[in-house]
Request: fold
Amino acid sequence: MLGPIQRIETPMHRFSEAEEVDYVIVGVGAGGGVLLQRLARAGFRVIGFDAGPFWDTERDWVSDEKGAHNLYWNDLRITAGRHPLAFGANNSGKGVGGGTVHWASFAPRLHPSDFRIHSIDGVGVDWPISYADLKPYYELLELELPVSGPSYYPWGDPHGYPYGPHPMGGVGDILIRGCTKLGIPVSAGGPVAILNGSRADRPHCIYRGFCIQGCKVGAKASTLITHVPDAIANRAEIRPNCMVSRIHVNQQRRATGVTYFDSQGREHFQKAKAVVVAGYSIETPRLLLNSACPGFENGLANSSDCVGRYLMAQAGNVVLGRFEELVRMYKAPPAHALTEEFYETDPKRGFARGFAIQTVGPLPISFAKQMMTAKGAWGWGLRSIMMDYNHWAAFGFLGEILPHPENRVQLAQEKDRFGLPIAKVTFNLGDNDKKLIEYGKNKTMEVMSAAGAQEVVQEARYAHLVGAARMGNNPETSVVDRFGRTHDIANLFICDGSLMPTQGSANPGLTIMALAARIADYLIQQGGLIFESEKRTMETPPMRRDLSPPDTWGHGMPRL
Ligand SMILES: Cc1cc2nc3c(=O)[nH]c(=O)nc-3n(C[C@H](O)[C@H](O)[C@H](O)COP(=O)(O)OP(=O)(O)OC[C@H]3O[C@@H](n4cnc5c(N)ncnc54)[C@H](O)[C@@H]3O)c2cc1C
Ligand code: SF4
Reply:
């Protein structure tokens, strides 16, 4: 069961281990889930491995903050550097659907400028593709999830959304009030991948606010409910609770399959003609590094020494304001209004690039943690703040941190229960990052005050890890080419957020899925060449709109 009325009726196809499948995909999250569905629909024999469970959302999920703790990758990771990142509930998922199970589902696009920040602003690096390359895929994924939003979205490449905006919650009303007072344009009701009307076997949103806990209703999009059912209907196999430990490469420098541990801890080998890694920006580089072997002593696809480097997180400070009136910030999807008015570089501000301001709706446990950090609240003081919870509103400031080579994933000395070295993640801010955070945090607090808050506090944090196996045209400074193919191994691909050379200040999920759909079109166009040839065609593939999951077409509101 994937919600109260959506269910998978098709029995899952099973490949035998002796069988050489076409593709093995490691990780069925945002990127892996979309790719799996496309390849299966195009007739490839494909297995998706995921280290976590295949959720039965009726049985396994609860609309409760604490009860949803197991949606995250909670295994030990080492965090290091002058500005260390928090792990656990702050980043990746574990289980079919990956991080899209617990994402808030804000789904903005990157701006055209994001693909050329080195050319425009002299910082970071340019992407090997342009916004125009990704635009049709953004439009397609906005229909597939689908994304609700205003009919005219004014920032970046202005566009409209196929499904109309959601009604406002208390926090959205406050963001609109604060922005309006300051003359800042604001988008109300999205863009967010949540249904505002029922569609096929998915019901509409009921505005109870448990989106980050998975959305037991099935109104919020995740690849678990939008793409995986169609993959299974098209004979893909998913092996849940299977942790891939190594990618094997033969003497001809071609990937031959993967070793994995099943739920009982037994080791297996699955043969494949090609391997795709889609395990998130920490586990993807970790797997490539853990797969070091003769000929690839520094890890697979790492001749550039870029595997694990240029890891990025967005600055994600939470700004909280106390209001005289009741806000009840739990009563709506946390993601429902935002402004991108500060997204682009403004030389007057003294730093490159920018930020977005978005609604967030922390539930009580997160709110308590934020108040401990922001106000040092504890004991009776914390109890009295918690009793006041319904008067507080929260905004998230989402700021672009630039890619730095020393921000990286490496292997630690410590090992996990399978004996595999765990990830050590080092993170430091640069000068531009610090200036941007200071300015953006203050601007977000100004908006909260302008809305009429009696008290405004903030908690510093980071969100949305991407990068660490970036794409580029130059094999000396990147890991994969513009179609996700590793420069070093012709039948080894990457298809997740690790690909991103820079991150903008848009939430990354939609971009990761759009990139995955584009990579799928490339693999489908190349057909058998991927399995037997070293030749790398760099022609843009035709777009395969026909491979969308059913119910993509003929719904929503056509918008100019
Ligand atoms: C609380 C929260 C809210 C968020 N809200 C938003 C939002 O509103 N909008 C947005 O765009 N983004 C949001 N994000 C970020 C978004 O969830 C991620 O950017 C996105 O899911 C990353 O996609 P991915 O494909 O890189 O990896 P994931 O989606 O994390 O998928 C990776 C999968 O690989 C599996 N895996 C990893 N290693 C292995 C292995 N060795 N063997 C087998 N399986 C493996 C994992 O179990 C996982 O299922 C949010 C994140 C968090 C934590
Ligand atoms: S608010 Fe809507 S999208 Fe969020 S959990 Fe509830 S029904 Fe799902």
